[in-house]
């Protein structure tokens, strides 16, 4: 279960950097300042959770747990729904996509809560 999460983490990191550069250079003249900031928020959260996903996957190598797998899956769902909805919202202008964003944010929160529980349950090394 670790390999897919590491691959997804690398993919999210790669695409996060690419999307950030795309926004800074390619979208700067195409989007309003407000929409550009929304797009960058998606990039920001994607990159943070790419790193979190790497950390969870590496932790799972040393202390496998169902909670860590759930946390990793929730981070993936969060990136897809939170960041993905922000990207689509800014690129299409379809405001109704914004109702998906909080679902992704809730997935992030649930993932962090699962990580908290997994850490709490760890035995001292």
From TrEMBL:
One of its GO terms (cellular component) is plasma membrane. It is a multi-pass membrane protein. The chain crosses the membrane at residues 44-61, 68-87, 99-120. Signal peptide: none annotated. It is found in: Membrane. Keywords: Membrane, Transmembrane, Transmembrane helix. It holds the Pfam family DUF423. Belongs to the UPF0382 family. This is Small membrane protein. It comes from Pseudomonas saudiphocaensis. The lineage of its organism: Bacteria, Pseudomonadati, Pseudomonadota, Gammaproteobacteria, Pseudomonadales.
């Amino acid at each position: 279960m670790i390999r897919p999460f590491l691959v997804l983490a690398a993919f999210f990191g790669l695409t996060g950097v690419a999307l950030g550069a795309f926004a800074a250079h390619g979208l700067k003249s195409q989007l309003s300042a407000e929409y550009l900031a929304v797009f960058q928020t998606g990039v920001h959260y994607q990159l943070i959770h790419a790193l979190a996903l790497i950390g969870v996957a590496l932790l799972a190598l040393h202390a496998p747990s169902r909670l860590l797998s759930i946390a990793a899956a929730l981070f993936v769902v969060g990136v897809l729904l939170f960041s993905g909805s922000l990207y689509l919202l800014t690129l299409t202008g379809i405001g109704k996509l914004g109702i998906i964003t909080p679902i992704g944010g809730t997935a992030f929160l649930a993932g962090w809560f699962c990580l908290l529980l997994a850490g709490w349950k760890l035995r001292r090394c």
